[in-house]
Amino acid sequence: MNAGYRHRAGANVSLELRAWNIRRKALMMGEVQGQGYIGQALGIADVLAASYFHALNYKPEEPEWEGRDRFLLSIGHYAIALYAVLMEAGILPEDELETYGMDDSRMPMSGMASYTPGMEITGGSLGQGLGIAVGMALGLKRKKNPAFVYNMMSDGELGEGSTWEAAMSGSHHKLDNLICLIDFNNQQADGKSTEMLCSEPLDAKWEAFGWHCQRVNGNDLEAVVAAFDAARALKEPRPRVIIFDTTMCKGVPFLESREITHFVRVEADEWSKALAVLEEGKPQ
Ligand SMILES: Cc1ncc(C[n+]2csc(CCOP(=O)(O)OP(=O)(O)O)c2C)c(N)n1
């Protein structure tokens, strides 16, 4: 663990409430544009809450602090989800929420490193994040910087050859400072990931590539936190991956039960309805 610093602001706020706040902010941004990858944001909110309010070291007021853990969003189309947690963490000011996706906004609809504090890479060309993460993790080690690199990727990226080249080099270089987070929502643009290009048995594949692998329910905060703790504490000279099985649209039942596609259509009047439904489930 990074000896110098651990972000503890708002330590009295529960992770459940953090995740709820992330969902709420994402829905509010979706409402601004009338669209957005909201199914993914609602699904990954618990993992993001645990990342930014349990696992990561960072200084909100100094997003480029050299000692920070790096969080790479390989899936640039999930930007709405990352903006929500960056706001919740105080890295992005909340009053910019209203600018989401607009010209001159610091929050474009796909993640761009040069626009947004806390957006480490310009992801979005799928399958690139893990390779970048391997390079960063190697660089940090050579500089004797004890920070971790987290790469957040999707199940769709498991169908990219570049992911597996990166996986091989991560274990070749014994990158015990690299933690890959996979959002396994089993959805891609054209259908279910398992029906498009099946990557199962996934745990066995990562293990065979030399990684320490865990697979948990990504909407069970207790399990998510335990997986982060185990990945960080492991004393083995190899990279770690956590596969999170998540439910798209989690927290808004009428969207959850809709025939889910990669891009969930939300009608103009449904944004406020979704926010109202979320409000009913607000944790204490
Ligand atoms: C290399 C590459 N190919 C295609 C796309 C277009 N694209 C954007 S999102 C997406 C869906 C990918 O599925 P997944 O990453 O599992 O995301 P989810 O459906 O969970 O959002 C695709 C094909 C892209 N961004 N990059």
From TrEMBL:
Q: Which residues cross the membrane?
A: 37-58, 70-92, 112-138
Q: Which Pfam families match?
A: Transketolase_N
User: What are the names of the required cofactors?
Assistant: thiamine diphosphate
EC code = 2.2.1.1
Report the residue ranges that make up the Transketolase N-terminal domain in this protein: 31-271
Q: Which CDD domains does the record associate with it?
A: TPP_TK
- Any one GO MF annotation of this record: transketolase activity
Query: Which terms are listed as keywords in the entry?
Result: Membrane, Thiamine pyrophosphate, Transferase, Transmembrane, Transmembrane helix
Which family is annotated? Belongs to the transketolase family.
Task: Output this protein's name.
Answer: Transketolase 2
